[in-house]
Design brief:
This protein has nine helices and 19 strands. By secondary structure, the protein is an alpha/beta fold. The chain has one domain (3-285): Rossmann fold.
């Protein structure tokens, strides 16, 4: 099942806020499995971001096998030589779902960027494969990526550290573990300096599906939209690094399972309207 998007026909792209349920219930991971056209898909798990890849892979191997995957492949990419491996590329090519674990998102961009493995991931996505990532594996999906900065002191110029991500989705900046780690101020500073970007703060056991123009929320947690496009003023340009930022008229929304957000219209879509959008979208591409 390939999903039409504003970038062309691609597979589904899912970002998870971290700490998703990995028990036998595993609502988010179960829903990801249903996004392929395979009754029992093959899942390739990339643990590059993690400092404990053996443990992390075993957790996801057990969970995905329990909930219906045919096979779970260990895409063990620990350095750039691994990312150039023909064996790794072949496993990516045979995966229906490519899942990026949590950890350090800078490791993902440093090790995978401009490699044969990353080219294979992009090609599989273009062919309709599902790309999903949790925590660091979600943060790296945007064009500009948050990779650090204390939430307790983030509304100071330069406190939030950003770098280039993989650009799998445009127009948003993703932050994870959002409510649980109090990261509202991080996306407020991002919005003050980059108001054209939509801030997407995904909580734990929460996820979003990028469905063309629409961001669809699912899972038991919250997704927070931070819209800085209507900001009326900020002192950020006048400050030295480390000085406190003022910003006015930031708009925030809280989404839960069944709600969505239109990036074009900059508004929340309720369950009924989201369902209607889904039917309209399916009809347009059938």
């Amino acid at each position: 099942m390939s999903t039409p998007s504003k970038f062309g026909t691609k597979g589904p792209l899912i970002a998870i806020g971290g700490a998703e349920d990995r028990s036998s219930r595993s609502d988010i991971l179960r829903r990801i499995l249903t996004m392929t056209d395979k009754e029992a898909p093959t899942v390739g798990v990339i643990t590059t971001a993690s400092s404990i890849p053996d443990d992390v892979f075993e957790i996801y191997r057990t969970t995905f096998c329990t909930i219906g995957a045919a096979e779970v492949l260990d895409l063990r990419i620990r350095d750039r030589m691994d990312a150039a491996s023909l064996d790794i590329v072949a496993m990516i090519q045979s995966s229906d779902i490519i899942f990026l674990s949590g950890g350090d998102q800078m490791r993902l961009t440093n090790i995978l960027g401009a490699t044969a493995a990353m080219a294979a991931i992009r090609a599989r996505h273009a062919d309709g494969a599902v790309i999903a990532g949790t925590s660091a594996g979600a943060a790296c999906q945007s064009q500009t990526m948050v990779y650090g900065g204390s939430a307790g002191d983030a509304l100071r110029k330069g406190a939030v550290r950003m770098s280039a991500g993989f650009g799998l989705v445009e127009g948003v900046i993703i932050d994870t573990h959002f409510l649980e780690r109090g990261r509202f101020s991080r996306l407020m500073e991002v919005g003050a300096t980059n108001p054209e970007y939509l801030g997407l703060g995904i909580g734990e056991d929460a996820a979003v599906l990028f469905d063309g123009d629409v961001i669809r929320a699912f899972g038991s947690g919250h997704t927070i939209i931070v819209d800085s496009s209507q900001v009326t003023g900020s002192n950020v340009c006048e400050l030295e690094d480390g000085q406190p930022v003022s910003v006015q008229n930031v708009i925030m929304h809280a989404l839960v399972d069944g709600f969505g957000y239109s990036q074009t219209e900059r508004r929340v879509l309720g369950p009924d309207e989201l369902q209607a959008k889904s039917l309209e979208y399916t009809s347009a591409y059938s």
